[in-house]
Amino acid sequence: MRTFPLLILFVFVCSLSLMAQNDLSKMFDEPVQAKEHIPVTATFKSPQIINGQSNETMHKHDLLFVVMHRFGDIAGSYGGMQTFYGLDNSSDILIGFDYGISDRWSFGIGRTKGAPNGTNTSQKQLFYLKTKYRLLRQSIDNSIPFSVTLFGNSVTSGMDRLNLITSDADFQKFSDRMSSVTQVIIARKFNDNFSLALLPTYVRRNYVSYMDMNNLYGLGIGGRLKVTHRMTVVADYFLSFRSQESKDYFLQQSGFRFYNPLGIGLEMETGGHVFNFIFTNSTAILENQFIPSTSSTWTKGGFRWGFSISRTFTLSKKSGS
């Protein structure tokens, strides 16, 4: 008869023990989760804002196929009804692939038509290799307040040499065809609706026309504002630090002015596709050309329609590890 009360006492003690273990488990779980510094995701929805890069890289073993297009001037001397507001012309076209070597490191390859302006650059038929690496990732607990991503590319012109000594396409050796960009992307997602990025940039062009600059610095700023569940407004702007001496020379010799590229657009997410519909005064797509050589201005109708379409393919079931 004494067995039944002892059994009840045993069950009661075991229950208290389990409850105590659960509480202890929670006490240890919370510090572990905090130590992980869970990274913020989806600061931007694609690896590119408009003209500038975002901090996003591909997931491991994901392959991105991307097509970008820039039309002709909507208005001004080269636009209007005669070109159906730029739709009859294309200033630049890019077709490329990005691949995620790891969740932090992407590699890309592609080709652009190139956008020569005939004054300070004549290079076209541009083949590029690029890479992007996530150095720091913003964490939810704000122990890391922003993300830092490194970007670089190497571009080679495949066009025939122009036998014109005043042109940057008067190639004397293979290295004259090459240019490169090094960029640091500092980004922060302030909340689910708003993200911002700063993009200090260095452009190196091995061969330039007279009084142009081999080494040029730029500073970009880009943002993303979510307006609906699948639609966001995106914008970016680049300030080019061209010397006044160089600006004055091209203005006096040929009446040519340099402008800073500004892009504004809508980004729509539809399943595995991300579609960008944009306006920009930049004729070129690659940083190697639009930072040092933008020659169109919004105030004279020198802006154009453009779009980007990207599709992501997952090549491994283990991606996202």
Structure write-up:
This protein is an alpha+beta fold and 321 residues long. Helix content is 16%, strand content 40%. It has three helices and twelve strands. A twelve-stranded antiparallel barrel has the order 1-2-3-4-5-6-7-8-9-10-11-12. The radius of gyration is 26 Å and the shape is globular.
- For the CA atoms, what is the radius of gyration? 26 Å
Strand order of the largest sheet: 1-2-3-4-5-6-7-8-9-10-11-12
Beta-strand content: 35-45%
* First and last CA, distance: 59 Å
Structural class, from secondary structure content? alpha+beta
Largest sheet entry: 12 strands, antiparallel, barrel
Shape: globular
Number of strands: 12
Please bin the fraction of helical residues.
10-25%
Quaternary structure annotation: single chain
Succession of helices and strands: HEEEEEEEEEHEEHE
Average pLDDT number: 88
Number of helices: 3
> Which regions contain 5 or more consecutive residues with pLDDT less than 50?
1-28
Describe the structure concisely for a colleague.
This protein is 16% helix and 40% strand. With 321 residues, it is α+β, with helices and mostly antiparallel strands.
Entry keywords:
single chain; 321 residues; alpha+beta; 12-stranded antiparallel β-barrel; 3 helices; disordered N terminus
